[in-house]
Amino acid sequence: MKKFFLSTLISSAVIFSSQLFALDFSVLAESNSNFKFYENEYSSPVLKEQESLTASLRLPFNNEGNVYFVTEGFFQYTLNADINSDNSNSSDEFLADLTLFKFSSFTKKDNFDILFSAGRFFYSDLTGIVFAQENDGAFFQINNRNFTAGIYAGYTGLLNEKNVTVLDKNNSGYSLKPDSDFYSFAAPYLTGSVFFKLPYFYKSHSFAAEVSAVKGTEGPADFSPDDSRFYGTVALDGSFTPELFYIISTTFSVNENCSLGNLTSAELSLFKGKASFTASGVFASGNKGSLSAFNGFTSSTAVYSASEMQYSSLIKGGLSLSYKLLDNLVLLASGDGVFDFGDETGFSGVQAGASCYFQLLSDVAISLDGTTFVSNKSSDENLTSVTFKVALAF
């Protein structure tokens, strides 16, 4: 019996040691310098300097690597300062978060692929706008050549509200975080969704549908949102030619008062050699006619304005271009017109953006981004932003 126990112990140690050699560990250091020019007054910039360190670890449980555990966390220091002011107008902040802590398995049974994940990980709905954030929960998906189906359930109450902003039923972010704390629990919601996709709905066109729900509950934040919302989405995507692709989706939202909102988006993309061209448009309903203001769940900035408008009560349309100048250099540019579609309607303003991404070395990347918004209604909404970022992986 002792020999059996000893041999089992030695075998377990050997197996565990062999798994240790399969550990994948990486560290990413980033420096991000952002300059904001409110009301487009270029003589009075506001600086936001961020220094962060991210560590990730991946541990497979078998030789194939399709059953594994992965985790990622970061520590970030932020300095905010008015450059033309004294130090009394500056502030700093520390932030720490565990953004990924997931067990995942991918298996095949007969003609089906089965994916299961549980823990904390990023999850997005079909739109990538309504719900797109890290969350604690579980995801199950099964698919074959003809269809994909999945179910997701999660909870937001243990997230760091300083890193993930949840919108309330009035389309505003909760303000629960004390400035002195590096971790503040988010507003607690139960979240869930069910979806399916037919990848060959008609020739090269696919069809997908999803139903999602969020409900306020209790959590460590000592705050219980009195809020329930439901979302239903249908989407089509596919290609007209080998170079011309499209995506169309529409989402209807219903809250506890049975108010109906709508978010509809469409994209048409042309790929030519090293370049791609995209025409896109978004409609987010406002309080007009039979529709109410659309209310997403994850905070997502729709406009480069000073107020950082959410996807609600607006119409936006424009063009974007990307060009791979070199194998390690990509250029992007975009422009949009923005219209109000709420209690008041009309032309709101124009915005433009440009980006440059340069892979200096295999483990060093540099990027430069610039955006500007010019309001047709109030100079208070005018904003120009320039961001320089350096990332080093090791």
Describe the structure.
The protein is mainly beta and 394 residues long. Helix content is 5%, strand content 61%. It is built from one helix and 18 strands. It is globular, with a radius of gyration of 24 Å. The chain starts with a helix and ends with a strand.
Q: In whole angstroms, how far apart are the ends?
A: 47 Å
Quantity of strands, as a count: 18
Binned, the helix content reads under 10%
CA radius of gyration is: 24 Å
Contiguous uncertain segments of 5+ residues: 1-18
Going by helix content, strand content and strand pairing, the class is: mainly beta
Mean pLDDT: 90
Q: Which term fits the overall shape? A: globular
Strand content: over 45%
Q: Spell out the helices and strands N to C.
A: HEEEEEEEEEEEEEEEEEE
Determine the number of helices (DSSP H or I, runs of at least 4 residues).
Answer: 1
Main beta sheet: 18 strands, antiparallel, barrel
List the topology elements.
Blueprint: H1 2-20, E1 24-38, E2 46-60, E3 67-82, E4 91-109, E5 112-124, E6 132-143, E7 148-155, E8 189-202, E9 205-216, E10 228-241, E11 244-255, E12 260-272, E13 275-284, E14 314-326, E15 329-341, E16 345-361, E17 364-375, E18 383-393
Antiparallel strand pairs: 1-2, 1-18, 2-3, 3-4, 4-5, 5-6, 6-7, 7-8, 8-9, 9-10, 10-11, 11-12, 12-13, 13-14, 14-15, 15-16, 16-17, 17-18
Throw out a few tags for this protein.
mainly beta, globular, 18-stranded antiparallel β-barrel, 1 helix, 5% helix, disordered N terminus, 18 strands
In short:
The chain is 5% helix and 61% strand.
